[in-house]
Amino acid sequence: MASLKSVRTKISGVHKTRQITKAMNMVASARLRGAQSRMERFRPYTAKFREMLLELSGKTEEGAHPLLAERPAPETCGIILATSDRGLCGGFNAGLIAEALRLARKKEAEGLGIRFYNIGRKGREAIKKIFPAQASLHQSNLEPLSFQTAGKLGEEIIEGYLSGLLDQVFIVYGEFVSLARQTPRTRSILPLKAPESEKGSGGRQAAEYLYEPGAQELLAELLPRYIKVLIYHGLLDTSASEHAARMTAMDNATRNCDEIAESLTLLYNKTRQSAITTDLIDIVSGAEALKG
Amino acid sequence: MDKTLQLDIVTPDRIVLSEQVDYVSAHGAEGDFGILPGHVPLLAVLSTGILSYTVKGNRKNAFVSGGFAEVHGDRVTILAESSELADNIDLARAREALSRAEKRLEHQEENVNMERAKASLHRAVMRINIYNSR
Question: CB–CB of B85/B62 below 8 Å?
Fold first, then answer.
């Protein structure tokens, strides 16, 4: 049977671990609130942006801009993989990486060359192992998250697309469905699809807009920015999902600590009881012996 | 004049301004233009620089970069990649950006994107000017 001292050490060890997981849970929930309010603040911008694009796409003809044109025979496919920088968030990153690899394999099977653009340390390291040749394309960490991260990557992607280096671009990110559910999602970025008109928003089209400069030039200004908006949206979602996933993981860990501590305490009490029993037997038998 | 415009300046990070104003004046890609209540619907590209608006006779300035303006009815919406009201401009940061951009342009290193350095120089200068002309 384990000695009393070693059981006591184990219990205090588990308690310390529990303190850490509990603290991480609270930190993650605070960060999640931050990430969610960021998404909240980003929403008016996206909404307005969609509205403008919608307004414009009605006024310009098909193939009005190279970013909208579908390539007949695509050769390369860019995959933007958004993951977190840190672990300890359950299977969140593993799920994202698996999703990205599935997409890569599928595109490879179609005969396309794959180029990875990684945002977030976890995904970058995983991709480096599997695709060592081209892990060095674009690398940045997810944190600190700002529109600039999306902006820089967006410019790189657009440049690549216009120069013919990329024919398709997808983004793989963690969609924040709810506190308990985050799913890896793949979304096509390039060639761009003009946003679909949402139901019930048809009433506005009546107004005849004045464009300055022309509608074409305006579209040429708006579309590259729309790509950045899409990427930033993916990054924000990933960030919120990461913190939600970590909260759940740390909550589970805390609960497991409680369980282990409970069973260890039981063991401790049993050990102590048996030690006392042994001592008592010693004393009693000693006394009996003295009586003679 | 009791008709006013609802001016909103929106960036990816936050809503910078949402206020009732009398008049908005902006630098368009093809020159300056002013917007008074009752303007026809308009979509315009804004060049990096100053956006001014008048609230109850007081003229106020804001910095806008990478922006678009939409006028629809009595609403003016500015969508910008970054934007600050004149009072909120971080002068120290703008100065820093200015000297960084100048250094880059001086040395003309190969791996530095000249266009980008020029753009950031321009942004820094505009920010400082707007701050000083409050």
Answer: yes
**DSSP assignment of B95-118, as one string?**
HHHHHHHHHHHHH--TTS-HHHHH
- Chain A CB contacts of B43 under 8 Å are 52, 55-56, 209-212, 218
pTM over 0.80: yes
**pLDDT digits 0-9 by tens, A217-238:** 888 888 888 999 999 999 999 9
Please report, for residues A118, A179, A190, A234, the alpha-carbon distance to residue A224 in angstroms, rounded to integers and kept in the order given: 20, 32, 10, 16
Does A44 share its domain with A86? yes
Mean pLDDT per 10-residue interval, chain B, length 134 residues: 84 90 88 88 89 90 89 90 88 88 77 76 87 81
Cβ <8 Å between A55 and B29: no
Residues of B whose CB is below 8 A from A218: 43-45, 68
Q: Which two tokens stand for residue A252?
A: 């589970």
Parent domain of A14: 4-24+249-285
A107 to chain B, closest Cα gap in Å: 32
List Cβ neighbours of A53 (8 Å cut-off, separation of 6 or more): A194, A195, A222, A223, A226
Q: Are residues A228 and A277 in the same domain?
A: no
Closest-CA residue of B relative to A212 is: B44
Report the complex ipTM: 0.80
Beta strands in A54-167 (DSSP E): 76-82, 113-119, 138-140
What's A279's domain CATH number? 1.10.287.80
